[in-house]
Input
Amino acid sequence: MSDMSDDRSRNDAPVPVDGQDRDRRPAVFLDKDGTLVENVPFNVDPAQLRFTPHAIEGLKLLTAFDYRLVVVTNQPGIALGKFDQRALRALEEALRARLAEAGVTLAGFYACPHAPAAQLRDPAFACPCRKPAPGLLFAAAQTLGIDLSRSWMVGDILDDIEAGRRAGCRSLLMDVGNETEWRYAPQRVPHGRVADLFDAARRIVAYDLEHRLVQENPSWPTASRPLNRSTAGA
Output
């Protein structure tokens, strides 16, 4: 078991963000299918949008503590001909409206429309935005003025975790049974496991508040302890 240490991988050079560090804000990056909403394969029907348990409560808590909320999602259905960009935009609009009704604002919605590398004739031409690549997070950071070093990625599979770590974020696995391959590598080990988005939000807020207090009071004794249901060996 491990605590939420600062051992974030930086093998990918982040896209620079204009402005001073103090002007950038932390974000929580959210996988869409299986994390924010229930996973319905290739769904672009707004009528089938269902939030995962306690998702709204978690997003409200993060909003109260001034985190930017950004969806980062792989949508290979576009490349595979299951739906088009217009249908995905309609789904995004419906999602934003549903969240707004609950008092939650999305700062951004970033989607990779490309096919998985395994389905390409030449995997060497795989795009840089499909998770586990961190391109979507870098794009959001550049556009929205996000401090990746103070941000988090929450997802339900290890590709989400890897994308977050490669972008320089802390990452939490929403351990709800959606990860089935469990291909381990250092970048795919989450900083912790959570049961749902409210659990994730509580742990994010608690960790960051404690971290801030310690920075402001360096003479305080600190206890290195896990704040989550950590992954073994993380």
Helices lie at 55-64, 85-101, 135-144, 158-166, 197-216. Residues 30 and 71 are 5 Å apart (CA to CA). Residues 1-11, 13-20, 230-234 have pLDDT under 50 and may be disordered. DSSP finds five helices and six strands in the chain.
